[in-house]
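hi! just following up on the protien thing from before. the input was this:
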Amino acid sequence: MPILRVEMFKGRSREQKRLLVHELTETYVRVMGGKPESVTVILQDVAKEDWGAAGALMADKYPD
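and the predicted 3d structure came back as:
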């Protein structure tokens, strides 16, 4: 049972998330084999103020 985990900034619509889950599942099955029913996709929204890289908060690097 593969689990695909995606962490991303908050702000995507439900439709965008729905399409992403579909496309990730289809691509996994095409490349790795198996059945779509066995693929789990977990989407986690993260606020920019809770994400840091290279010593800086993403909220500072990418203000809204």
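DSSP finds two helices and four strands in the chain.
The domain at 3-61 is CATH 3.30.429.10 (Macrophage Migration Inhibitory Factor).
cheers
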